[in-house]
Design goal:
Elements: H1 2-20, E1 28-38, E2 41-50, E3 54-61, E4 68-75, E5 80-87, H2 95-105, H3 108-111, E6 119-125, E7 135-142, E8 147-165, E9 168-177, H4 182-208, E10 217-229, E11 232-242, E12 249-260, E13 263-266, H5 279-294, H6 297-300, E14 314-316, E15 321-325, E16 338-342, H7 344-347, H8 356-364
Parallel strand pairs: 9-10
Antiparallel strand pairs: 1-2, 1-8, 2-3, 3-4, 4-5, 5-6, 6-7, 7-8, 8-9, 10-11, 11-12, 12-13, 14-15, 15-16
Helix pairs in contact: 1-2
Length: 367
């Protein structure tokens, strides 16, 4: 039943996102990604703050299978944040959409019936006007274990943009990295703004031709920093759009980059593995087994086999190598998107020495 509710909410919020913008219903005006150590564990915290005092967070811990979704409050004047975390019952394709789902489900009466709280994070952002929350001193209390403390450092600050013109409603969100990432920042900005300009021109052309926009011409996108290790950054851009028809649609695109003295370079999936190994066959087998266990109909029916499976969208994060499959890719639209996570311990024998997979494994694999 929970899966059905999650799917129904996904479809409803997907439509709401297409109309309301990249951050869903919550009036999110500040969002950043923090990385660092809490106790002896590497963590990443995506933190979003709404204007009305609500706060949302996604917490990933190195080597942990579960992603934690958090809701709570913040005090803008004091810089304090408090979040109650529950195990995510099925990840949304992007953090922005996940926050919209949390926002829609976080009425007091709904929270009482939700999954139990597993951890509580309390922290204080540095709020000097010179840094705008560049660090977060935090304490994470695991309800069935211990409390750990540490200071997390902001790795990226999110930039938001939007355009509304009648029934044309477009928006984007992308991270602007701190430090020596000017080329990557320029690339993300150029991609987001050029896509928005393209959608605007197409919508305006329909209006100018007096063909009518129907229910609307909407486009919303959000780029998430999924993980960073050594010289590598792994990003996922999720797109939501409605241009008429029975329902809105969505898809995602990934980007893995390496920043070096020679500049910015994109890293392909094959570069993660030893070239002489039969890595694809092994990885595909793992992915198909996982998808079948998740109930992906096209995999269970044999419509998608090893030859048809596309591994085009992937990310590297604290949990491992994640493959992302859009709606329709491995199941019908009603099933929504799927994700498959493969831990670094499993992948290490196939990893190319000195490559991205090895760098993330060194940072996040369990001892």
């Amino acid at each position: 039943m929970r899966s059905f509710v999650r799917i129904s909410m996904f479809i409803a919020v997907l439509y709401g996102l297409a109309l309301a913008g990249a951050q869903g219903n919550a009036d999110v005006s500040w969002r950043a990604l923090y990385q660092g150590q809490l106790g002896d564990q590497a963590v990443a915290l995506d933190l979003a703050l709404a204007a009305d005092g609500r706060a949302f967070g996604r917490l990933t811990l190195a080597g942990a299978v579960d992603v934690l979704d958090g809701v709570g409050t913040h005090d803008a004047e004091e810089g304090t944040v408090e979040l109650e975390f529950r195990v995510a019952s099925g990840q949304a394709p992007s953090v922005a959409l996940d926050y919209a789902l949390l926002d829609a489900a976080n009425a007091d009466e709904a929270a009482a019936a939700a999954d139990p709280v597993v951890a509580v994070l309390t922290g204080t952002r540095s709020i000097d006007w010179t840094d705008d929350g560049a660090s977060l001193t935090a304490s994470l209390h695991h309800l069935e274990a211990n409390s750990v403390e540490g200071t997390l450092t902001r790795a990226a600050q999110y930039a938001f943009g939007s355009l509304v013109e009648g029934r044309i409603d477009l928006s984007y969100a992308y991270p602007r990295f701190i430090g020596q990432n000017a080329e990557l920042n320029s690339l993300l900005a150029e991609r987001a703004t050029s896509r928005l300009a393209d959608w605007v021109s197409k919508g305006r052309a329909i209006v100018d031709a007096a063909d009518g926009l129907g229910w609307g011409w909407t486009h919303s996108e959000s780029t998430d920093l999924v993980g960073a290790a050594a010289d590598y950054q792994s990003l996922l851009t999720s797109f939501y759009y409605f241009t008429g028809g029975a329902h809105p649609n969505s898809h995602s695109e990934s980007l893995l980059v390496r920043t070096s003295e020679g500049g910015l370079e994109a890293v392909e999936l094959a570069e993660l593995f030893v070239a002489s190994s039969d890595w694809r066959s092994q990885v595909v087998d793992w992915v198909l087994v996982d998808l079948a266990q998740q109930g992906a109909e096209f995999v269970q029916s044999g419509e998608v086999t090893a030859n048809e499976l596309e591994l085009t969208t992937f990310t590297l994060g604290t949990r491992g190598l994640t493959f992302h499959f859009d709606a329709y890719a491995v199941g019908p639209y009603v099933q929504g998107p799927f994700q498959v996570v493969i831990g670094y311990e499993r992948l290490s024998p196939l990893a190319a020495p000195g490559g991205a997979l090895a760098a993330f494994a060194a940072e996040f694999a369990q001892n």
